[in-house]
Write a structure and sequence with these properties.
- This protein is an all-alpha fold.
- The chain has a single domain, classed as ABC transporter involved in vitamin B12 uptake, BtuC, CATH 1.10.3470.
- Strands 1-2 form a two-stranded antiparallel sheet.
- Helix 3 runs antiparallel to helix 4 and helix 12 packs across helix 13.
- The radius of gyration is 20 Å and the shape is globular.
Length: 334
Amino acid sequence: MQQVKTAAPRIMKPLKSNWLVQIIIVAILALIPFIAGRPTQNLFILIFCMSVFAMSYDILLGYTGVISFGHALFFGIGAYGISIFVSNTETTMINVLLAILISLVVSIIISVFIGFLSLRVKNTYYAMITLAFAQVGMIIAEKARHVTNGYDGMTFRVPSILVNKMLFYYIALAFLVLSFIFLWKFTTSPTGRVLVAIRENEQRAKFIGFNTLRYKIISTVVAGAMASLAGSMYAIHMRFVSTSVLGIAKTTDALLATVIGGMGNLYGAILGTGIVNLAGEYLSKLAKVHPIFERWYIIFGLLYILIVLFAPNGVIGLFYKLKYKTSTKALKNK
């Protein structure tokens, strides 16, 4: 994990707790199964799962100021943990919950180990060590073909209650809401404030008496645990797991969503995930119009560059900037 300076701190203050607006948004999302078909439901379930993964990454990048190239390791542990356990036991909800719990515990243990090892290292070695651990995880998944089926991936069955896509849609939505509430409580807690202080100036945080290593490990554990849960939900949704869940591309997806939405803001992680997945889905359908849309990631690459150059605070940052200009103009006119 590499210590980085984010552009978020000046205008990326937490949104005021306007619970009415948030409840309305959740209510609208709850209506989607009644007004949209199965493909749209599947897309939104994917967005819900990946939003939690992006929020977990934002805990590291946006709130603590460290960047990891191997965050997909925890996502993969959650995905492979449930697929392997359920494949070798009876397909019951108890076993599914037990598999999620075991994956969560394993992720916490590994995140503590990686934290103690990598967070003591300076500069770019942070990112390289986490990437190395993720690559080790991918190699293990590839070589243990008798367990994971290697590159070909593995399918598994889930309890019949989870096969019902409408029901699972609401489970995934509840998972997103509960994850957001938990991470919001965490980031607004005294521990979360210390993480922001470390992001802003780690040496100053040390000077005033904080054990910055301990707080950064806490950040790593929380991020790893939430990524594991997101991986488990993703695997249940897909009912298929391959080595791609451990690849750097999966980490890049979270990084892209976080930067586009806005670092240091949980709303930004969710918004960025929605933008990336919805735009990717519909841009890829435009391949019939022009072949360039078959490479829609090129468009996102250009968008990423433009955001980094001209809007480092992401879409949420642009919202705050526009709101600030509007309020300032209104005050001048009075």
